[in-house]
Amino acid sequence: MNTFYLAQESAVGAGVGLIGGIIYLAILIGVLVGVGKVFVKAGKPGWACIVPFYNMVVMTEIAGKPILWFFLLFIPFVNIYISIVLMVEIAKRFGKGTGFALGLIFLSPIFWCILGYGDATYQPVVTESV
Fold first, then answer.
1. Contact 78/72 with Cβ under 8 angstroms?
2. pLDDT in tens, 89-127
3. Is residue 129, in this structure, part of any structural domain at all?
4. By residue range, what is the domain housing residue 42?
5. Fewer CB atoms < 10 Å away: N or C end of the chain?
6. Is 128 helix (H, G, I), strand (E, B) or coil?
7. Which has the closest alpha carbon to 64: 81, 49, 42, 47?
8. Measured on CA atoms in the order 88, 92, 98, 104, is the torsion positive or negative?
9. Does the residue 42 lie in any domain?
């Protein structure tokens, strides 16, 4: 086996890996900007989407749920139910239906970008006063 051939094959593999990494990074940045735009539409700071844990607190607020729901996200199996309800409520706050909520659950990156880059407007939770 020729060592030149192995070196050439290794260089091609590295180039493909580099291109794949750049594409992944571009998609990641696009999704983060999309989620940030959703936060801004809801009157929250856009940078909050990149801060661990705080981003879930903000999503809980956007969904109109009490802060207790954030802590429920740490309980196994309960967190699955809470996450689904949060996605459904966020979809409702932006005037979207159950189908869109399913998109947020199963195809999150795509549907967060649709919310962020699209023309959906946030409809805050209306509290009744006595």
1. yes
2. 999 999 999 999 999 999 999 999 999 999 999 998 776
3. no
4. 3-117
5. C
6. coil
7. 42
8. negative
9. yes
Tens of pLDDT, residue by residue over 67-90, are 999 999 999 999 999 999 999 999
Residue matched to tokens 């493909």: 16
Distance CA 114, CA 83 (A): 19
Q: State how many domains the chain has.
A: 1
Residue 74 in tokens: 């740490």
Residue 122 belongs to some domain of the structure? no
Q: Summarize pLDDT for 7-50 with one digit per residue, the tens.
A: 556 666 677 778 888 999 999 999 999 999 999 999 999 999 99
Distances (CA, A) of 97 to 7, 19, 59, 93: 54, 37, 18, 10
Rounded distance between C-alpha atoms, residue 86 and residue 61, angstroms: 10
Sign of the Cα torsion 106, 108, 114, 119 reads: positive
What tokens were used for 126?
């209306």
Cα dihedral angle (59, 65, 70, 71), rounded to 10 degrees? 180
